[in-house]
Amino acid sequence: MRPPIVGLFARLLLFLLATMLAPAVHAQTSAQDERRLIAYTPESNGRYWATKRVLPAYPAEALTRNVQGVVEVGIGITNEGRVLKVRVPPGLDPSLRKAAVAAAKQWEFRPFVSKMSPGEFCFFRLTFNFVIEEDAGRVELYNPPYDTLEHRRMRSASRRDVTEWLSWENATDDN
């Protein structure tokens, strides 16, 4: 027969292990659950569904520092056509990031005919091109040359895009 203290110790050890492992299991489950809630579509579809498009204002700070380039923003929209979530890849210039996120939040889309379940959203990219010409900054929707990898990516979507979306930084609450 075991001494009672050993049984108590074993139960305490099991409780501690379960408590320490629970957040990791819950976090993994949450990511899997979120992955199931995400529908994905090519950027070309997202642009087509837009009823209101807002281009970012070129940040004066970026213009002064001569910062330009292509900035991707991932947005998730509800079946009513409003922006629900915004994500950005890590490492963006802070001023370009802020401008792109602020503009993406203002986009509006027509409602979906096929309704998504509560909690579901449709994700796609918006790609902005920040360009400096003759000491003036302008922003446009990025349209890559035909038959390039970037063009094909804009016209298609894959499960890999959802994995990438989940690895990007949440910018929904950025101001």
Explain what you see:
The protein has 175 residues and is α+β, with helices and mostly antiparallel strands. 42% of the residues lie in helices and 25% in strands. It contains six helices and eight strands. It has helices spanning 4-37, 43-49, 60-64, 94-105, 149-155, 159-167, and strands at residues 38-40, 50-52, 69-77, 83-88, 108-109, 121-133, 136-141, 169-170. The strands form two sheets. Strands 1, 3, 4, 6, 7 and 8 form a six-stranded mixed sheet that branches. A two-stranded antiparallel ribbon has the order 2-5. A hairpin with a 5-residue loop joins β3 (69-77) and β4. The longest helix is centred in the first third of the chain and has 34 residues, at 4-37. It is globular and about 45 Å long. The termini are far apart.
Topology:
Elements: H1 4-37, E1 38-40, H2 43-49, E2 50-52, H3 60-64, E3 69-77, E4 83-88, H4 94-105, E5 108-109, E6 121-133, E7 136-141, H5 149-155, H6 159-167, E8 169-170
Parallel strand pairs: 1-6
Antiparallel strand pairs: 2-5, 3-4, 3-6, 4-8, 6-7
Structural class call reads alpha+beta
| Overall outline | globular
Low-confidence stretches: 12-29
Beta-strand segment tally: 8
Query: What is the straight-line distance between the termini?
Result: 65 Å
Order of helices and strands: HEHEHEEHEEEHHE
Helix content: 40-55%
Helix tally? 6
What is the averaged pLDDT score? 78
Radius of gyration: 22 Å
- Strand content is 25-35%
Largest sheet properties: 6 strands, mixed
